[in-house]
Amino acid sequence: MKLAFFELEGWEEKTLRDRFPHEELLLIKDRLDEFHLPPQTDAEVISVFVDSRVTEKVLSNFPALRCITTRSTGYDHIDVAECKKRGIVVCFVPGYGNNTVAEFAFGLILNLTRKIYHAIDQIKETGSFSLQGFRGIDLKGKVLGVVGTGRIGKESVRIGRGFGMKVVAFDPRPDAPFAAETGMTYLSLHELLACSDVITIHCPLTPETTHLLNRDNIKTVKRGAYLVNTARGPIVETAALIDALDQGILAGVAVDVLEEEGEIKDEMKFLSQARRPEELVLMLQNHMLMRMPNVLITPHIAFNSREALMRILETTMESINGFLAGKPAHVVPELR
After folding, report:
1. How far apart are alpha carbons 301 and 32 in whole angstroms?
2. ∠181-182-183 over CA atoms, to 5°?
3. Is 232 a catalytic residue?
4. How far is residue 186 from each of residues 144, 161, 176, 190, measured CA to CA in Å?
5. Spatial separation of the C-alpha atoms in residues 219 and 255, rounded to whole Å
6. Which residues, 6+ apart, have CB-to-CB distance to 242 below 8 Å?
């Protein structure tokens, strides 16, 4: 059977060859989308990462395709509905870096509340040791609002409690035993936004969570709060972020994800194609965020630790071996 892996860094190749000695492997560093199709499109199994876009058009180029595995927890970059029509199994990584992403989120929180990045940048760029503008706030005693208490959200709750924070959370499926164990409290989203000093987002991107934070409800955020998003960009409406920052509702924002971040990474190709006006507006809004002094943006690296990447690869190989054995593992919920 032919297996094609996209967005590889190189270190994975020996492990993949050792694990699949009897399969034909295509090991590709480039992402997969309609502008980046490989010379050979006869693979029966493909594995992608978050920069790939497996659309209906891409699927039509793989006539033998039977299984897709994404090396990520999110799978919004794959047209799952079209895969279902074509009888293609889609697998994902349910959990790989619960602590990994939560630790990174708190790194962003500390950078926002203690102005660490800007202080380091001042010394490197100017040599100045001036304290002007670097007064921060303590986390101890503050209210942490966790949006989504899945695996990563739960880790964030525990870390927040370790900092001595009062923790509240929003989740449409509350976990009462976990709340009792950790001493956190579930609230409605409106209540959470109104009382939290720091808000961290850890829910998946679904139709229900797209623009979960938007121009309407971001007005209810506690004035002077900080917002961190390490989940998916479209969970927060970009225009709402800009409004909240301009109006002083949010004191600072740190994001590891943006709406349409793939287009930001390849702007020349994006601009060379015919685009709807709203897509161009979104790109401009992303650039506005990048220039704001109280906004920190990292290039989607919250997952990126050695340990997490190895767990991702192991889970992906489990999914493929399960498919080869006729018992797919880690299938996305919509296809179970």
Report:
1. 19
2. 100
3. yes
4. 12, 15, 8, 12
5. 19
6. 285, 288, 289, 292
Of residues 31, 53, 232, 311, which has the active-site annotation?
232
Q: Which of 72, 144, 111 is nearest to 300 (CA)?
A: 72
User: Which DSSP letter does residue 256 get?
Assistant: S
What residues pair up with 76 in beta bridges, in sequence order?
none
For 200, the 3-state DSSP assignment is: strand
Which of 259, 74, 156 has its CA nearest to residue 170?
156
* 66 flagged as catalytic: no
**Other beta carbons within 10 Å of 244:** 23
Contact (Cβ atoms closer than 8 angstroms) between residue 187 and residue 168: yes
Sign of torsion over alpha carbons 211, 208, 315, 8: negative
E strands of the chain, at which residues? 2-5, 24-27, 45-48, 67-70, 89-91, 143-147, 166-170, 185-186, 198-201, 225-229, 250-255, 295-297
> Cα separation of 88 and 75, whole Å?
14
| Confidence at residue 264, expressed as pLDDT on a 0 to 100 scale | 54
Is residue 248 classed as helix, strand or coil in its secondary structure?
A: coil
Distance CA 299, CA 275 (A): 24
Residue-wise pLDDT tens digits, 133-192: 999 999 999 999 999 999 999 999 999 999 999 999 999 999 999 999 999 999 999 999
**pLDDT bracket for residue 74 (50, 70, 90):** confident
| Res 233: pLDDT | 94
User: Which of the residues 7, 261, 263, 311 is marked catalytic?
Assistant: 261
In the block, residue with structure tokens 């039509």? 60
Q: Which residues pair with 229 in a beta bridge?
A: 201, 255
Task: Count CB-CB contacts under 10 A for residue 45.
Answer: 25
Residue 295: CB atoms within 10 A of its CB come to 19
Residue with tokens 């919250």: 302
| pTM, entire model | 0.87
